[in-house]
Design brief:
The structure is a single chain. This protein is α+β, with helices and mostly antiparallel strands. It has a single domain, classed as START domain (Alpha-D-Glucose-1,6-Bisphosphate, Chain A, domain 4). The chain contains four helices and seven strands. A seven-stranded antiparallel β-sheet has the order 1-7-6-5-4-3-2. A hairpin with a 2-residue loop joins strand 3 and strand 4. The longest helix has 31 residues. The radius of gyration is 16 Å and the shape is globular.
């Protein structure tokens, strides 16, 4: 199952990259994140592996995240005409997914974020249901992106919204 979602963020790309790639900020915008722990490699760089734990309904989902692409490797002072690409794979019991993020300078201090997503499932029931659930997966991904936008533009922390 594959889908693409995109949105504009009213912040310069350098600031978006800084907030998006720093794991210290992930819990502020990634609703349901319980843990994101580096297991090996250099955080945010190709080959980095992290243990990710997300709350999922009444339980939790534990996965292994691997950064597979970061272009350019050095994110400081990236020319405005260069599209920054960041890709990662997530593997959990019965599931594999890939997210291919593209961040481009959209002018006027804004950033266009395009996220291509792919999911694969091991169990036959999930493989059969996945096409029917595509809309729900797309909606959830867009909600995470909108939470990030609110954090980047206004400092909105999803943990405060969940408490209140």
């Amino acid at each position: 199952m594959e889908f693409t979602v995109s949105l504009r963020i009213a912040r310069p790309r350098d600031r978006v990259l800084e907030l998006l790639t720093d794991p210290a900020h992930h819990a502020a915008w990634l609703r349901g994140l319980v843990a994101h722990e580096l297991v090996e490699g250099r955080e945010g760089h190709v080959g980095a592996v992290s243990r990710v734990v997300m709350s999922a309904g009444k339980g939790t989902l534990e996965a292994r995240e691997t950064v597979t692409l970061r272009e350019p490797e050095r994110l400081g002072d990236v020319p405005s005409d260069v599209v920054v690409r960041y890709e990662r794979e997530l593997a959990a019991e019965g599931m594999w997914s890939a997210a291919r993020e593209r961040l481009q300078d959209a002018g006027d201090g804004t950033t266009l974020w395009v996220s291509e997503n792919e999911y694969r499932f091991d169990a036959l029931p999930m493989r059969l249901l996945a096409p029917l659930m595509r809309g729900a997966f797309r909606k959830q991904t867009l909600a995470h992106m909108e939470d990030f936008r609110a954090f980047a533009e206004h400092g909105t922390d999803v943990r405060e919204a969940e408490e209140g």
